[in-house]
Amino acid sequence: MRRLMVCAAMCVVIVMCAAGNATAQIGKSVSVAAGTPEDKALTDIYAAPDGPDKIALLDKFMADYGKGDMELLGDQLYVQSYLAQKNYAKVYEYGDKVLALDPDNFSTAVIMVHAAEEQGDTAKLFDAGQKVAAIVARYKAAPAPEGTPADTWAAQRQGVLKTVEGDVGYVQYALLNAAYKTTDAAARAALLERYATTFPDSTYTLSAREQTAISYQQAQNAPKMTAAAQSLLTSNPDDISMLILLADTWCNDPAHLDKAAAYAQHALDLLVQAKKPDNVDDEQWQKQVAIQKGLAYSSLGEVNVNKGRNPQAIDAFKQASPLLKSDTFSYAQNQYRMGFTLAKMQRIPEARVVLTEVIGLNSPYKARAMDTLNKIGGPVTSSGKTNKKSS
Known about the structure:
Blueprint: H1 4-10, E1 14-15, E2 30-31, H2 37-47, H3 52-65, H4 69-84, H5 88-101, H6 106-119, H7 122-141, H8 150-181, H9 185-198, H10 205-218, H11 222-235, H12 240-250, H13 257-273, H14 282-306, H15 310-323, H16 328-344, H17 348-359, H18 365-376
Parallel strand pairs: 1-2
């Protein structure tokens, strides 16, 4: 990830030539003729260390020359210097001034992202990130400048976009990372939705959309979770994560049992052919595939329970069990489902063994397993005997 040094190098561009020969950048280019009083004042500013002395020199520069392009240049220098001093309020203040004078000033918008990330201000981070995205979008859509052939403009634009690619990637990563760190599930989902809207073509957008649905599930907002997952499946019917999420959601919904079974089976079929991404190690990949297969089998089992096919359900739960061992919540859910179904089938000794295992796991299914056990003879002790609690 390219960080501050990349952006700072782009922060102020002083072109010692005609404006028509501006170097690659997005936003206005400011020309300062060599040997002028402005040039001398700027030389002193650049030489001064970031701190009160540099700010004093900038204040004088703005008082003497701060009109037109020199105002824009001075405000950019304030932004850069205040970031180095970690005076984030001033970074935003002068950053807004720069963008008022030059709404397409890419480098300043990126610096505002840096400030918000360093400060840990997620709201300001997303606001600044959206400014970056809007600037890039406007630049991509801009027509060729008057007198510039279309092919020349296309090549020039492509070169500039290549130059800023690293900074755009940094901005995208910073926003997504902040969203992932948001502990409130509903707030996290909203940020992830905002990210996907802001950067629809980002390499991270698919992951953001998947995590949006999962975050809404964690927030227990079923309508928004379902809508997010179905939206993804509309664009990609082979999204394994969303197939499994909806299969697990609908496996107890009488109106969607067939669809839940179809989604779970489709996920299993896709997992047979799934290829490991380059950025995932073998152990992590095997664990991920195992859990996904286990969740699919567990959903199929629950569908069978709800269709009155208990023997087939037990077979599916048994297939899921070893696959889910590494994930306590999913394993406990599957074992509870199996134990409860065994109890319904009056296979009491087997049910007690399975449910006793569930009460030994730290999961939300512990209390439910104990409640079922108390109705069928209590948990099994280490000696294999009943340990029924007195009421």
